[in-house]
Design goal:
Strand order of the largest sheet: 2-1-5-4-3
Largest sheet: 5 strands, antiparallel
Helix content: 55-70%
Structural class: alpha+beta
Number of strands: 12
Strand content: 5-15%
Distance between the termini: 112 Å
Radius of gyration: 49 Å
Amino acid sequence: MISRPFLSSIAFRLPFAIAFICVLVFSLATIAVYGLQRARQEMAAYGLQAFSALAKASLVSRQVSDLVSSAPFLMNSTSPYRVSSESRSVVLQVDALLRAMQPENDRAAVRGFASSRIVELLETIRTQTTTLAGDAESAQQHKAEAAAALGEIATGSGIGDAGFRSRLNAIVQSASNSDSLFQLGELRRRYVSETAPRLERAAPDTRVAAAELAPYERIFEAQTRYLLEMFAIRAAVSRLHSVSRDLSHATETQSEAVARNLSDDLVSTSDALSRILVIVAVASLLVLAMAVVSIRSVMRVSRGIVSLSNGMNALAEGRKDVDTPRYDGTETELVRLLEAFRAFRESVERVTRLRRTAEAAARTIRSTFRSMNEGIALFDPRGRPITMNRRVIELVGWSGSARKLPLRSFVTPLPEIDRALLPAEDDAGLLTDRCVLRHRSDVGQVTEVSVSRQPDGGVVLLARDITDMDRQEAEAAKIQRLDGIMRMTHQVSHEVGNMIGIITGSLGLLERETGFNERQKRHLARIRKAADRGRSLAGSMLSIGSQQPIHPGAVEIGAVLRGMADVLEIAIGEKCRLAFEIAGDLPTVLIDTALFEQSILNLCLNAAAAMPAGGTILIRCSRSEAGVSVSVTDDGIGMTPEAVDKAFEPYFTTRDAEGGVGLGLAVVYGFVRQSGGDARIASVPGKGTVVELLFPA
C-alpha cells in the first residue's frame, strides 16, 4: 500500500503531472500525424518534385551568389598567386554547380527548372577560369624569374664600380615593382642611358661586360612578360565578371519560376491543414488545463525552495538575523529541508566566527608577504610553484608570466645554481643543506639567492638585492689593496733612494779624483746617468706612495681648467676635440695646482690614446656632496671590468705595445689621496671611459 508521505512528495506529484501531460501530447501528436499523413497522400503527386526543385534552386542560387561575390576580388587582385588561387576556387564551385544540375537517378529535369542556359553559362565560366589560372601561373613564374635575378644581383659580386652598381640596382628594383608598361619603359630608357656608355666603346677602367649585365636584362624581360600576362588576366577577369552577372540573372529567373510552381501546389493542401489546426487547438486546450494545475503546484514548491535558498545565502553572507523560512505545503522533501536548515544555521554561525579569525590572519600574512623588500618563492616537493611575491620575480630576472614556471625553469636566469640539486616531477633533487650564492646580472645588479629544503620536501627560494653592499665590499677591498701597494711603494722608494744616495755620493768622490782615462770617464758618466734615472724613479715612487712634497693652496678649479685649455688641445692632437662643462659658483679646494694640472694632462693623454680615430674629450667640473667633482670622459675603446679594477695599480697598463709604463693613473691616484679626495673609474668596452676626481671643499 502506498504511504501518504510518498503521495505528498515532489517525487510523486511532479512526475505524475509530467506523465499526464506527455500522454496528452502523445495523443495530440497521434491525431496530428494521422491528419498530416492524409495531407501527405494528397501531395504525393507533386510534393516530391516541388521540394526537389526548390532545394536545387536554393543550392544553385546560393553557390552562384558566392561565385558572383568572388568576381570583385578577382578584379581587384594584383597578385598572380591570388588570382590563380581564386580561379581554382571558382572552378571547384562551378564543378559543384554542374553536379547539382544533373538529374538524380537519370530522371528528367524537374518542372520549372530551366537549367540549359545555366549549364551553358557555367561551362563558359569554367573554361575562362581554367585559362585564367594558367595565365596567373605563367605571370607568377615571370615574377619568380625577376625575383631570382634580383637575388643573383644582391648575392653576386657583380660590377666593380660601387656607384654605378648602386644606380643600376635602384633602377631594376623600381622595374621589378612597376605596375605599368609605360613606367617600365621609362625605367628601361634610364637603364640603357646608364649602361650604353660603359659597353664596348668605354674606357677600360669603366667598361662593363655584357655578361655582367645579363641579370639586369632578365629582370626587364621577366617584368615585361609579367605585365603583359597581368593585362591579359584583368581582361579575362572582366569578361568573367560579365558572364557571372548573366548567370546570376538566369538563376534568379529560375528561382522565381520554381517558387511560383511550389506556391500553386501548396494552395491545394491548405484546406487539409486547416482541419488539422482545429484538432490541434482542441488538444492544446486540454494540455493547457493540465499545465495550469501543474504550474500552481510547481510555483508553490518553487516559493518554498526560493525561501530556503535565500535563507542559505543569507547564512553564507554572514548575516546573524536569519529566521527559519516558512512553508505551508505538505511536500515531504521541503519539510525535511526546513529541519536541515535549522541545523545548518547553527553550524554556519560557528564557521563564520572561525572564518573571520582566519581571514584576519591571512590578510596580515598576505600584506607582509607582498610588501617584503626581499623576494620569496615557495615550491612543492615536485618543484611546482605554490606562491611567490613580485619581488622575487624581479630579482631573478623574469616578468609576471613566470609565476607558473616549475622550479628548474624558474632558476634558468641563475646559472650559478646547479639544477640537479632542485626537485622536478620525476626527480627529488640532491638539495639537503641550505645553499647560498650570488648572481651578477648583465646590468651590474648583484642578487644573493638562498635555496633551502623544507621538512615536507618543498623548497623555499629567498632573494635580496645586495648590489650596494657588494659594491661597497669591492670598493673597500680595492682601496685596501691600493693602500697596501702605496705603502709598499713608499718603503721601496726610501730604500731605493738610500741606495741611490750612496751610489751618487761615492760617484762624486770618484769624479774628484784625477788620472782617469777616457774610457773610465765614459763609464763614470754612464753610472751618473743611471743614478739620475734611479733618483727620478724614486721620486715617481714617492708620488705614487702619496709621500711626495706638495704645496697646497686655495684653488678655484674652474679657472685652472680654463687656463689649461690651450696646453691640453696641443697635447691631445688634431684628431681629438676638447669640450668643457664647468659649473658656476664652485667652492675653492686646497690642492697643489701644479700636481692637479699634471693629473688632468695625464688623464687627457690617456683619453686621446683610447681614441686613435679621434673623438671628443669632455672635461666636466661640478659640485658634489663633499666638495668638487672633476671628470674626464672619452668615447674610446673602453676597458674591461678587470682592467678597471687594476687601473690605479702602479705599472699596470693596457698599452704595452705602445710603450706605456703604467704610472700615469697611479700618480693621479696618489695625488688625489694625498689631497684628501678620492678617484673613480667607470668604463664599458667599446663605449668609452669616465675618470672622476673628488676633492673636499
